[in-house]
Design goal:
This protein is an alpha/beta fold. It folds into 2 domains: 144 residues, Aspartate Aminotransferase, domain 1, CATH 3.90.1150; 221 residues, Aspartate Aminotransferase, domain 2 (3-Layer(aba) Sandwich), CATH 3.40.640. 41% of the residues lie in helices and 14% in strands. The strands form 3 sheets. It has an 8-stranded mixed sheet with strand order 2-9-8-7-6-3-4-5, sandwiched between helices. Strands 10-11-14-13 form a 4-stranded antiparallel sheet. A hairpin with a 7-residue loop joins β10 and β11. The structure holds pyridoxal-5'-phosphate. Pyridoxal-5'-phosphate (PLP) binds next to α4.
Length: 407
């Protein structure tokens, strides 16, 4: 009979200083508990799996293995598949007005790797990063690994506040290395940076000589309002690092994303940093993404197919919130993306009520870990993409009941 290995509690390993602040993300831990089939989960950031283009990918993979299997299963160059990088340029130009050339694109293994690589090449221990508050937890985790410190800027319904950014830049004794921003339907708040503020942010960043790191996984998932140009499209220059991914427009399992770095000095530093991390992003999935995406109109058709489904789910969540949330609760009304952000009464600690939420078979992510340099307990992030309209309505009813009972 096999004997289960014993967990060893005392370690002979002496960990690096940088591991002090690095913990498993609270979200990933919560996600483990929400795998149970009868829990209605608003916790993950998962796209709807029924929308994955599975048949097309089966064909794309078969085509790749049949026609270019020797390359698809072989080591490859760190920068990424040239024809995919060219396709990304055409896509960015037509979809978002960003003009770039293929040699400015670095394919990365998910945007999460992009966050890590930019941290790796730019941050020394103690260096400051300007960040929205609340901010994407995965970015905080990535920059924490390089012992970053944070200058947090107030955020409201139009995103990062320029007046507060100026205050932060003026009062900081060390010039921050970059400003990290998710301008479209931010994770966790769902808030979008207005056009006026995009221009203001660029002007301030230029004036203070601080580059911007624009993380844009959700920009194409817009359900209402007019699309806004990315900062990279407005900047026309070397001041902005732009990043996006196939995770939300096609499928996250591909682990294919891209950094756009017009600054060649930066590009030339990030390439060896990636090489040291993983040599290159999977040759197979890069080729499969290209084989899928190269068909004219296909990605756009797929996005057009997803939008009404997500729009209906967002709307279902918004109307259920209006119906079931107790007085004193407020929430954002995102024009796109996958999340909205709820602020409960001050007396409610959303982390403390999570076990009771599990008992009532509903899950969310408590907001506290997303806040930087602040102890805010009465917020939560809700994901609306991964449940259908009926389960969304029922889940919000359960959550409303819970918030009423604990108030
Ligand atoms: C703002 C933001 N950046 C990056 C990522 C990571 O995306 P990827 O799947 O490309 O690693 C996410 C995922 O949720 C995100 O919300």
């Amino acid at each position: 009979m096999a004997v289960a290995p014993q967990r060893i509690d005392s370690s002979v390993f002496r960990f690096a200083e940088r591991m002090r602040r690095l913990h498993a993300s609270a979200i990933r831990e919560i996600l483990k508990t929400t795998q149970m089939p009868d829990v209605i989960s608003f916790a993950g950031g998962l796209p709807a799996p029924e929308l994955f283009p599975r048949r097309e990918f089966a064909e794309a993979l078969a085509e790749v293995l049949e026609n270019e299997g020797h390359h698809a299963l072989q080591y490859s160059v760190t920068e990424g598949l040239p024809k995919l990088r060219e396709w990304i340029c055409r896509y960015l130009e037509s979809a978002s007005g960003i003009s770039c050339s293929a040699d400015e694109i670095l394919i990365v293994s998910g945007s999460q790797q992009g966050l890590d690589l930019i941290g790796k090449v730019l941050l020394d221990p103690g260096d400051a990063v300007v960040i929205e508050n609340p901010a994407y937890l995965g970015a905080i985790q990535a920059f924490d690994a390089y012992q970053a410190t944070y200058l947090n800027v107030e955020t409201d319904d139009e995103g990062m506040r320029p007046d507060d950014l100026v205050r932060v830049l003026r009062s900081s004794d060390r010039k921050p290395k970059f400003i990290y921003v998710v301008p479209n339907f931010a994770n966790p708040t769902g808030v979008t940076l207005s056009l006026e503020r995009r221009r203001a942010l660029l002007a301030i960043a230029r004036e203070y000589g601080v580059p911007i790191f624009e993380d844009d996984p959700y920009g194409r998932l817009r359900y209402s309002g007019d699309p806004l140009p990315p900062l990279a499209a407005l900047a026309h220059g070397h001041h902005v690092i732009y990043m996006s991914t196939v995770s939300k427009i096609i499928a996250p399992g591909m682990r294919v994303a891209w950094l756009v770095m017009p600054d060649h000095q930066l590009y030339d530093k990030v390439v060896p940093a990636k090489q040291a991390a993983d040599l290159h992003t999977s040759s197979l999935t890069q080729r499969a993404v290209y084989a899928y995406a190269r068909h004219p109109g296909r990605v756009e058709e797929h996005i057009a197919h997803m939008l009404p489904v997500y729009r209906a789910r967002r709307d279902a969540m918004l109307s259920a919130l209006a119906e079931h949330m107790p007085e004193g609760t407020s929430w954002t009304r995102p024009d796109g993306g996958l999340f909205l952000w709820v602020r409960t009464r001050r007396s409610v600690d959303t982390g403390a009520i999570l076990p009771e939420a599990f008992t009532r078979k509903v899950a969310f992510v408590p907001g506290a870990p997303f806040w930087v340099n602040a102890d805010v307990r009465n917020t939560m992030r809700l994901n609306f993409s991964n449940e259908n309209e009926e389960t969304i309505a029922e889940g919000i009813r359960r959550l409303g009941g819970l918030l009423r009972d604990v108030a």
